Amino acid sequence: MNDAAPRPGARGRLLLTIGLVMLAVLVAVMVLGPSLAPYSPSRTTPDSLAGPTAQHWLGTDSIGRDLLSRLIVGGRSTLLITFASVALALCAGLVLGLASGYLGGRVDLVVMRLLDVIFAFPVFLLAIAVVAALGPTVPNLILTIAIVYTPTLARVVRAPVLSVKRWDHVEAARSVGVREFDIATRHVLPLVVSPIIVQTSLTLANTIFTVTALSFLGLGPPPPDPNWGSMLAEARQFMELAPLTVIGPAIAIVFASLTFIVLANGLREALDVGSR
Questions:
Q1: Residues 41-68 pLDDT 10s
Q2: How far is Cα 71 from Cα 245, in angstroms, rounded to an integer?
Q3: Which domain holds residue 86?
Q4: Is residue 2 assigned to a domain?
Q5: What is the pLDDT of residues 216-270, one digit of tens each?
Q6: Measured over all CA atoms, what is the biggest interatomic distance in the chain, rounded to whole angstroms?
Q7: What whole-number distance in Å separates Cα of residue 247 and Cα of residue 71?
Q8: Could you tell me the sign of the dihedral formed by the alpha carbons of 201, 90, 206, 29, in that order?
Q9: Which residues contact 65 (CB under 8 A, 6 or more apart)?
Q10: Is 19 inside a domain boundary?
Q11: How many domains does the chain have?
């Protein structure tokens, strides 16, 4: 036997550790954003499109605002919308998926057909249509993203529930008179947590792109609040003169999405090893 061979789950633990470190950076930006920013994101200076200096580490934008400050504060806005919308989608997905999978019958039929209607539309096009109809405000953006990602999470919950609800311990709990609600929440739901956690991490990665893309198109939080998508939209015409105005937000978006992808892969491998 090769002693140098990695132990089962070693790669998963490494990915999970890296993902958690990256997540800690994002949480710090989200919680401490205004405190970490060296200047107010709306503060202007006479030096527009200036390169990196001792005062402005990433330079300034087209009207002289500090790019690093806007990147940090804009990240806080983007991440808050992302976490809030995914949390809302997760709550709705848990309720719909658990009810559909556990109760079955007509409840399953009605819930799945309603979710299929949402599935019939591409996620991004549906998000554009809903935000355009409701208006580009933060609450509407959170509600829209929750709506478009709820079907995915609901299906991830429903699939294992269909199997787990027939296991012997569930039938035993039912035979001794345990209430159906208690069976669903205490005996079924805890056994399907692993795929839910992994899918939630992947949904966070997708949501980052959705939020920034909507903001890029002018359907995100209204000015003067910065966010990564609107920063890209403002900077695209100046990218040849000041490439950092585009590179900074682009790297931030990729870093945030990669964080949740790495975290999802680490969780998947770690949870699979744990279940085995």
A1: 888 888 888 888 888 888 898 888 999 9
A2: 10
A3: 25-32+63-275
A4: no
A5: 998 888 777 788 999 999 888 888 888 989 999 999 999 999 999 999 999 888 8
A6: 76
A7: 11
A8: negative
A9: 39, 41, 42, 43, 44, 45
A10: no
A11: 1
